[in-house]
């Protein structure tokens, strides 16, 4: 891999992996070791979270296609070995972006949730995870993602309070689905949304208590998009910049 050509993104644009692609690997041990190591790397490299999330789903029966996808992540990392998250001082304002890719998995049609939490301009936590149940609409999948991100925001706010850090502004949760925002802001509960009643009550309660505020963001400015799907190269690069994943610039000295 050291002599391989670096990739511009960690996964092939606009593609999704499937269970039945390629030939089964005769010995999956090397694949599992590689993917396990990549999973640990997502703790400091949010830009590979979705790609690693994909290859993690095939640990039991990996194929040649899945191995090729894992190797592409390595090729991407080869070209970004000196990249990291550069933290900058600023106001302690908590915000988050949440998104979902409705029915994106070709095998079981489950959706993928993604969120990204900032303190000031610094990303502090992120996630790309398949939803446990099938969603019957894009609104349902987006609202499930909204509930997951809401729980994360509330937990971080509580943690900051325990550390003696009190926020001067209500945390903002950005979502690009108008219908999901309407459900979160409208106290009238409709029969067609009763199957997500628990998520509805959780988010609605947090909004009423002013633990958080939900707002609309356009799809173009939706930063959590990078956690839900394989993106075209330029779109990926644009979002990567917002993750502040870059070559650190160290100022000053001894």
CATH class of the largest domain: Alpha Beta
CATH superfamily of the largest domain: Ribonuclease H-like superfamily/Ribonuclease H
Counting DSSP E segments of at least 2 residues, the number of strands comes to 7
How many DSSP H or I helices? 7
Poorly predicted regions: none
CATH architectural category of the largest domain = 2-Layer Sandwich
Biggest sheet, spatial arrangement of strands? 4-3-2-5-6
Q: What string, H for helix and E for strand, traces the elements in order?
A: HHHEEEEHEHHEHE
Q: How many domains would you count in the coordinates?
A: 2
What percentage of residues falls in helices of 4 or more residues? 25-40%
Mean pLDDT metric: 91
Radius of gyration, whole Å: 19 Å
Strand content: 5-15%
Give the class from helix and strand content and strand pairing.
Answer: alpha/beta
Explain what the structure shows:
- Helix 1 packs antiparallel against helix 2, helix 4 packs across helix 5 and helix 4 packs across helix 6.
- The protein has 254 residues and is an alpha/beta fold.
- The chain has two domains: 81 residues, no CATH class; 149 residues, Nucleotidyltransferase, domain 5, CATH 3.30.420.10.
- Strand 3 and strand 4 form a beta hairpin.
- The chain is globular and about 55 Å long.
- The protein has seven helices and seven strands, in the order H-H-H-E-E-E-E-H-E-H-H-E-H-E.
- Strands 4-3-2-5-6 form a five-stranded mixed beta sheet. A two-stranded antiparallel sheet has the order 1-7.
- 36% of the residues lie in helices and 15% in strands.
Question: Which terms summarize this structure?
Answer:
Nucleotidyltransferase, domain 5, 7 helices, two-stranded antiparallel sheet, 7 strands, 5-stranded mixed β-sheet, 15% strand, alpha/beta, 254 residues, single chain
